[in-house]
Amino acid sequence: MPRRNHMPDLLESQPDSPAASADARPDPAHDTPRDTPHDGARDRTRDGARDGAQNAPQRVRVMLPLPFAGALDYRMPPAGTLHPGDIVTVPLGRRTETGVVWDTHLRLPPEFMPPPMPTVATGRLRAVSARLDLPPLPAALRQFIDWVAAYTLSPPGMVLAMALRANAMAAAPRPAAGWAVTDTLPPDLRLTPARHRVLEIARLGTPLSTTELANRAGVGASVVRGLVQAGCLREVALPTPPAFGMPDPTHAPPVLEGEQADVARALRNTVAEDRFSITLLEGVTGSGKTEIYMEAIAACLEKGLQALVLLPEIALSSQWTGRFARRFGTQPALWHSDLGTRLRRVTWRSVADGAARVVVGARSALFLPFARLGLIIVDEEHETSFKQEEGVTYNARDMAVVRARMDAAPIVLVSATPSLETLANVGAGRYRHLRLGARHGNASMPQVRTLDMRADPPERGLFLSPVLTGAIRDAIGRQEQAMLFLNRRGYAPLTLCRTCGHRMQCPNCTAWLVEHRARHILTCHHCGHNEQMPPACPSCNAEDSLTPIGPGVERITEEARATFPDARILVMASDTLHGPAATADAVERIARREIDLVIGTQIVAKGWHFPHLTVVGIVDADLGLGGGDLRAAERTVQLLHQVAGRAGRAEAAGHVLLQSYVPDHPVMEALVSGDFTSFMEQEAEQRRPGFWPPFGRLVALIVSADTPEAADMTARALGHAAPHLDGVQVLGPAPAPLAILRGRHRQRLLLRARRNIPVQPIMREWLSRVKPERGARVDVDIDPISFL
Ligand code: ADP
Ligand code: ZN
């Protein structure tokens, strides 16, 4: 079934569901975001008043977390009025669903407006079942959900589902009970000394629990229970202690001097303005960006507002929260998909009622119901892991900017190697720019040099040049640490038969199987297919003929163990470290110097602070440059610069060695010189003439089907129906690089448009003219990052 843009089908297949509302008309007065969103109460009256004036009072729109084209119409329950944002249950077919009372008018730019939906006659409306005792979804969040849905061409209910996935829908936890003295004591009360003491203490005013009351009076709990039975104590709800501590901005502020002080002051001023603005905080690794943006958080806390910090990878959060606690005296709230149910509910509520003051999380934290959002930070803004590729495809960095606008809050994008998109926005004057030029304290930038693999090749069958192994040996000899980086999991990326040339391939994907020797399997990194390594070639039956080609981290680890038999080696890869706790443990062992050599995939590139690490070897600096990805060079520079940045973060100088067969490549030159700015200027000049991002917009269409024919016919139909417009070009259809993925046949089309052309209406119109073949579906990826 097609996932997007075919919502009417879904509606028709639900004959007894109420049809979507017809009220989705543009409302020019609300195209622009509201300016004072921090007042939830005022907000609600405004919404309520407008509903009363312009809508039949008995009709209410409810958005359900389901793939409908819009909100559905229901009848107001007889017992009272509902306001936009209220969380309710409604009948849908024979089921009961939880949804949110939605706004009558979408506040979206005109080009984002979805087409109007048919109305249901008032007589046919079904009534809302109940209003749940939960904090309402704030207006800014509702508007954000509508915006993300319209921008990504996703059903708004699926975006709402991300906001409700918290499963915060459970009723409020029952508050703990305490006891207060009743107004009149029963006349026949037998007042023992023990009872007397309990009543004395209970009369002091603060209600106490049974245990607490008994303890303070120095009596057993049975005395308290006896008084309850005698009617002397009545139950009162105890105030629930806040789930999160109050971060104290004055707890341990850093000493800031020079440019750090200037930048911190500028950021504090930005937060003090308390309005929407976008700032890029750029600074080399180790320059104190994190330290400085903590000052922006402090300024936000001083204003009594909430702050949201987005990290590209939740594995990073342990080091981050520890640092936060040292600065502010308490832990921040954490948000990611692996939170336990209870913590998830408590956190959701605390964000909604404002008790959670600082939230650090992965991209899904963008959909939390902040009561008074005053600042968003996006750390490592260039990271492509901010793009969600499954379900609703959105880029959390870009959507964070939208969220900041809706909440009228400042946003700070942070990076040592900002994306070209962000740099273009700086260049156009849309973003402010703050820079930190030098590393903090005595640390200097690591020295980077290329190692020409043609001149200094490794021994036959090995992958580390003697120059690199020499540098590592020296570092370990000086009691320092070294790191080897290779962005490839497993033992070998390809297994080949030396006799017939057969390659071990995934049966479900256009991909080679990767050998994972430790687990004795061949596995597909795209679909998870596993098989045993066969004893003979499946094609020619030759025995002992299957040979691993190329290295993965496992193979590098094997080589390192043989080369440095006494070194304490730690492997950090996403399939060897399970979860944030394991990662945190590994990082602590490195910090405690229990490790001499770290070998890792991209997980080691992240913002870790390893003070004793002085030598970093990049096993294959050319790895990311292949393939037709338009951002291949940019991403390679960003990734390798970040890995390099792990070296020499304290007193001892750092050295980075790049193993490369193309040492003259502009990417290597940029890494060696550290002149990232010139490199990005060259990148910009390459993309500008063809209107490639950020100078134009891209939309990818991915057709996938059970059969090659269905994929092919759907793709060709899309090709025939392609728009012919000035400044718009459609490339394809063509088989996707991953022509088969999880058994589905794939074709791609790419729409490229000038930057000033809104692509959403074009896409909506185009897709409405093509009906996918049976078994085929069309996925839309606005601003694609992956082209596989
Ligand atoms: P970045 O985020 O730019 O990589 P960090 O904020 O992590 O840099 O700073 C690098 C190291 O220097 C950290 O250990 C940090 O605590 C320390 N540091 C940076 N600025 C200061 C400062 N003003 N006072 C004390 N320590 C600092
Ligand atoms: Zn596969």
UniProtKB/TrEMBL annotation:
Residues 24-50 have a biased composition (Basic and acidic residues). It holds the Pfam family PriA_C. Its cofactor is Zn(2+). Residues 1-61 are annotated as: Disordered. Zn(2+) 1 binds at residues 497, 500, 537, 540. Zn(2+) 2 binds at residues 506, 509, 524, 527. It is an enzyme of class 5 (isomerase). It catalyses: Couples ATP hydrolysis with the unwinding of duplex DNA by translocating in the 3'-5' direction; ATP + H2O = ADP + phosphate + H(+). InterPro entries: DEAD/DEAH_box_helicase_dom, Helicase_ATP-bd, Helicase_C-like, P-loop_NTPase, PriA, PriA_3primeBD, PriA_3primeBD_sf, PriA_C. Keywords: ATP-binding, DNA replication, DNA-binding, Helicase, Hydrolase, Isomerase, Metal-binding, Nucleotide-binding, Primosome, Zinc. Its EC number is 5.6.2.4. Belongs to the helicase family. PriA subfamily. HAMAP family: PriA (MF_00983). Component of the replication restart primosome. Initiates the restart of stalled replication forks, which reloads the replicative helicase on sites other than the origin of replication. Recognizes and binds to abandoned replication forks and remodels them to uncover a helicase loading site. Promotes assembly of the primosome at these replication forks. This is Replication restart protein PriA. It comes from Novacetimonas hansenii (Komagataeibacter hansenii). The gene is priA.
